[in-house]
Every structure is written in structure tokens, then in C-alpha cells.
Amino acid sequence: MNMIRSSLSSSYPKSFCVRGVSSLKDILSNQIPEKQKSLAKLKKEYGHVTLGEVTIDQVIGGSRGIKTMMWETSNLDANEGIRFRGLTIPDCQKNLPGYVEGGEPTPEALIWLLLTAEVPTKAQADSLTEDFHRRSKLPAHIEPMIRSFPKNMHPMTQFASALCAMQTESKFAEAYHKGTNKKELWKFAFEDILDVIAKMPEVAALIYRCRYHDGKLTKNESLDYSGNFSTMLGFSDPKFHELMRLYMVIHSDHEGGNASAHATHLVGSTLSDPYLAYTGGLCALAGPLHGLANQEVLGWIKSLQEEFKKANKPINKQTIEEFALSTLNSGKVIPGYGHAVLRKTDPRYEAQRQFALKHLPNDELFHIVSTVYEVVPGVLTSLGKVKNPWPNVDAHSGALLCHYGFTEYDYYTVLFGVSRGMGALSQLFWDRALGLPLERPKSVTPEFLWSQAKK
């Protein structure tokens, strides 16, 4: 359920107000009382309304489809895909300000939208860039910690460890332990959330530079959030910076039921601070069934490419169909195809495809990805393998990154982690601002399920 401002309930962009450069915190402070009042009325007057039944299959099957969470920032429709505060990805590309005229929207603009439900002006997005740069300095103990990590420690383990270790800086934790009134805690959550988002790029870049390169890191804070992050990683091509803007926006949020978002919300509901809450989210994202899927996709594509080169096979629909069937017949899945919710091609996949058609139409990996897209849905449909045979976001991202020389695919989930923090932490702000309670669903035993089944 999205508690979106009434100004957004009608069609956009007419209903979006255009502000001058207003403080993000001031805007949120003005919104909170109205949202608190609305939520209290909803609970008091309509709390008894039933949202649906729960089946045994849902209880056993990962709680799929159970409506059990309020999520402000985005909504995922099975047939339409993701909307950020009511805007589709093409809507965001059209309406949110970019770093360059006509370019991809900046993460700063999206964060503003996710937090306020308002499309920011370019000046407002730029003010958030400046704020992130001011907040980005790492605690003194973090860089030595990262440099001391074993070289064989997975980048996601390093990332989660470093974020957890930065909890020493938490303003929320300090305020809570001082006995701050719980109605005021949102102010400290706000500070932590912006601090975490601001610091993650340098942490992530330092991990990358130390694990794969010379350990040296160069900043350029004249650029935006994505441009500076790309520079710290070691990539100076403006087209790569544009790719990173797109990547971070489309990976930012996917409603609240996915593992990383839900973990952040769950841990945050205990009043753990945003550093600890999003560490929980990163640990969920590191799982093979969630964030690690993107590196598995590229591994499959690379193995296809290598096998075809060794056998001197052409890349066409017939040869890729044979390879796909061989993968499935060996008991494996084709990574990047199917989704727990979506029942159509993921709009995030399509956004990346359009970027590739514009910037790298002749790239070899893009040719493979495109041909796989033409073949695999038909193969999966004919075999009845999945409810949704269409590609998801992971099916494309690796090919784009490889084109620009970013080939260390066991690191890709860290990029996902920097991005997903924008959505999960924006929602965490509203969890605290609205005073949402500790999450505590009821579990049941197998015996209880059998007793209900036999009624």
C-alpha cells in the first residue's frame, strides 16, 4: 500500500508541484503530521477490513503473495512492473532531472522522489548531491579495516562488514540511548540514512580497488553521486557514468517483499539504527537467490561464449536453443529468466536493452543477450518450466558492465547493494516517521497445518 500525497493521486506530471530549492528535511517535516493522521484514521476506522486469505501453500512456499506489509516508496505489479511513487521507469527517465540534459535520471533525483513523493527540480537534486559529498567522509577505522581484509573474502562480505562497523557513527543509536522521545527519533534516522547513502560509494569503491587493483582511489566531487562513484571505481568514460546512473536507479527499489528490502524493514522495526538495519539487507542481498543472480547470469553467458568459440559455432537462434536445452536437461536453470512476482519482461531489463541499443548496438555480449532473449522464453514456455519465462533485471546488467571493462562479476552484487540502499533506506525513514511497530508475524507448526488441512 502506498500512502502517496494527494497531489500525486491524479495523473502526472501536471499534479507534481515545482518547488524552489527547499530543504529536504523541511519538506519531510511538513509531510509527517498529515501522514501520521491519515495512517491513524486508516487503522482506527478500517483496521478490521480483510485483505485476503492465506493458504497452506503460501505458508510453506515463502509467503508468496501474502499482503502483510505497508511500503511507501514503490509498488510492483505482476503485469506492469515497478512504479516508483507511481512513476514507471520511462516516466522517471522523462520527468526526473539528469546530470546532463536529456540523460538518465540521477540517483539523487530518485531518492528525493522516493522520500517526498515529489519530482525534484534540478536545483533540489543538485543540493542533495552537495549534501552527500559533505557526508561522505569515512570513520577513521574503516579504511584500515577494508585494507586488512583477506583477498579471498567475498566483496559482499567485506561490504556488509564495513557498513556494520560504521555503526559507531550512528546518530540514531546515540539519540535512542540518551532517551530521546520516540516521536523525535525520525530526525536522527533521517541523518543516519543520508549518511549511509553518502558513505556507501567510497566503501564499495575501496573494496573494489583493494581486491582487484592497486588499492588507490581517486575522487571527483565536482561530479554527481554516480559520476564520483564511477571515478572512485576507476572509470572515467562519461557513458559509463550514464550507465551507472541508470543501473542505480532501476536497482534502487522493488517494493518491500524482496529479501533485502524486507530484511532492512524487519531489522529496523526492532529500532536497530539504519547502519545495522541495512547491514541485514546486504546480507540478504548476498544470497544466490537474490543479489548474486546477476553474476550467475554473466557466468552462464560467458560459458556459452567460450563453448561456442571452442567449437567454432555461430551465435544464432538454433545454437542458443541447443545450449539452453542442454542447460535445462542437466538439471540447471537458465539464470536471469523468471521472477517471483512479474509475469512479463522486466521493465528494468527493457531499460538496459534500450541503453545498449543506443550506446553499444554491435557489442558481442549484447548480441548474445539479445539472441537469448529471442529464444529462451519460447523454450521455457514449451517445457512449462516457469510461470514467467521472461527476462528479469539480472539478464542484462552484466553484459553492459563488461562492455566498459568492468569484468569482475563477483563484485556486481556490491553495485546492487549501493543501489538498493536508496529504496530500502527511504522506506526505513517512513517506518520511523510513522512510528511503525516491531514486525512480529505468527508462525505455525506442521501439525497445525495438518489439522487445518483435515478440517
Give an account of the 3D structure.
The protein has helices at residues 24-46, 56-60, 89-95, 107-116, 122-135, 142-148, 155-165, 171-177, 185-212, 225-233, 238-250, 259-268, 274-285, 293-310, 317-329, 347-359, 364-383, 394-403, 412-433, 446-453; strands at 74-77, 81-84. With 455 residues, it is mainly α. The longest helix has 28 residues, at 185-212.
Q: Main sheet: which strands, in order across?
A: 1-2
Percent in strands? under 5%
Radius of gyration: 22 Å
Question: Quick one: overall form?
Answer: globular
Q: Give the topology string: H per helix, E per strand.
A: HHEEHHHHHHHHHHHHHHHHHH
Total helices: the number is 20
Low-confidence stretches: 1-21
N-to-C terminal Cα separation, in Å?
33 Å
Biggest sheet architecture: 2 strands, antiparallel
Work out the helicity level.
Answer: 55-70%
Query: Could you tell me the number of beta strands?
Result: 2
- Mean of all residue-level pLDDT scores: 92
Structural class category: mainly alpha
